[in-house]
Amino acid sequence: MTQKYDVVVIGGGPGGYVAAIRAAQLGLKTACVEKYTGKDGKMALGGTCLNVGCIPSKALLDTSWKYHEAQDGFQAHGIEVKGVSIDVPAMIERKDKIVKQLTGGVAALFKANGVTSIEGHGKLLAGKKVEVTSPDGKVDVLEAESVILASGSRPIEIPPAPLTDDIIVDSTGALEFTSVPKKLGVIGAGVIGLELGSVWRRLGAEVVVFEAQDKFLSMADDQIAKEAMKTLTKQGLQIRLGARVTGTEIKRKQVTVSFNDAEGDQQLTFDKLIVAVGRRPWTENLLAADSGVNLDERGMIFVDDYCATSVPGVYAVGDVVRGAMLAHKASEEGVMVAERIAGHKAAMNYDLIPSVIYTHPEIAWVGKNEQQLKAEGVEVNVGVFPFAASGRAMAANDTGGMVKMIADARTDRVLGVHVIGPSAAELVQQGAIAMEFGSSAEDLGMMVFSHPTLSEALHEAALAVNGHAIHVANRKKR
């Protein structure tokens, strides 16, 4: 007998599982189909983010930063530590434990909210039917009033660097090293490449990052990107811009990378090589030929502003649709779609999705950057406050970076907040809250911020927009 549901979600990642929970909360009979299996061979919810992305990488970033501080940072506080060492298998085991705890937490939330979890590969058929192929090959068909496609993304593979079991790896493999490589190559100086490169650099690896673009962090504000390049280089990451990898060769458990840059054709040899050149939507065997759902020119599922596909009652969210491949974007799309299915007029503000790179210092931003606004012909006022002038940052011995706020010169409305420094992601979120309510820089400048806090840097940047900063010299108006 065919099982019938109000909503069937294909994919249990941050877009899918959140959509399923919200749909169930709204009284809709909901099922979520997921094919991913964890290290224990059992189905694991949470998608890339929880299993092999955001969460495990943050666990390794935090461990490696603590190790780095114990080695190099404690002396400034008068703390002397001798004989610090890193147990890499123990670090990986801790990471796995956190992942298991969180994926198990999603399963518990499904149970608490009445979501039916179905293990297998989901495929959309015509007429809003979903074919589920279980791990043992058994095929079932589910009928749904509405279907949400949330199949996520996978790392892009490139011909010059085909993946191997343990020497040339993608972002997933880079989370599983059992020892610190002496020499590590990373292809791609984006979010993933910089984060993973940072982890193993802190633990002692010599790291070279190859970036095909001539510009570093082209998606970030120029001033912030310049500061990031300076800081990460100082930390020991060798970032080679305009470096195009042309081939790889493995010999005696090492990989030789051939690349071309401004100096011509060159070669470097590494113990491990991470390929982190981006991700692509996971649509393989997701859509039957007669499903009616269309893909765009980039291979993503075509949707409107509310994540509706070309088939009434079929929606798609997260990495499989247009926009930034971010877990928080996927989750909010999932909530929006569930609420629209339930008859609510939900919408989402795509202009205020924060971006974060979890290096140390963190790099984060929300809204538009200075070069975008200049290109649009918008006149702006800019306020910058360095953490070097923050009492709280000094106390923590973490004074690198700055807060930058950009406001419309005519209306004073905040158009962008860009931060490199301690707790950058948290400070940018404060900016996002202000911007969501149409705040002006003056509004933020008039608020009382507790002292001493890192948040005061945001306050001072807001004051600096109009030349009123107290704890740093204001730029003279021309």
Architecture overview:
Keywords: Cytoplasm, Disulfide bond, FAD, Flavoprotein, NAD, Nucleotide-binding, Oxidoreductase, Redox-active center. It catalyses: N(6)-[(R)-dihydrolipoyl]-L-lysyl-[protein] + NAD(+) = N(6)-[(R)-lipoyl]-L-lysyl-[protein] + NADH + H(+). It is found in: Cytoplasm. It comes from Halopseudomonas yangmingensis. This is Dihydrolipoyl dehydrogenase. With 478 residues, the chain is an alpha/beta fold. The protein folds into three domains: 3-154 and 280-350, FAD/NAD(P)-binding domain (3-Layer(bba) Sandwich), CATH 3.50.50.60; 168-277, FAD/NAD(P)-binding domain; 361-465, 2-Layer Sandwich (Enolase-like, domain 1), CATH 3.30.390.30. 30% of the residues lie in helices and 25% in strands. The protein contains twelve helices and 22 strands. The chain has helices at residues 16-25, 47-52, 54-73, 88-113, 191-202, 222-234, 327-341, 370-375, 391-395, 424-436, 441-446, 456-465; strands at residues 3-10, 30-34, 116-119, 121-124, 129-133, 139-149, 153-155, 168-169, 183-187, 206-211, 238-241, 244-251, 254-261, 264-270, 272-275, 279-281, 314-316, 355-357, 362-367, 380-386, 402-408, 414-421. Strands 1, 2, 3, 4, 5, 6 and 17 form a seven-stranded mixed beta sheet that branches. The chain has a five-stranded parallel beta sheet with strand order 8-15-9-10-11, with helices on one face. The chain has a five-stranded antiparallel beta sheet with strand order 18-19-22-21-20, sandwiched between helices. Helix 1 (16-25) packs parallel to helix 4 (88-113).
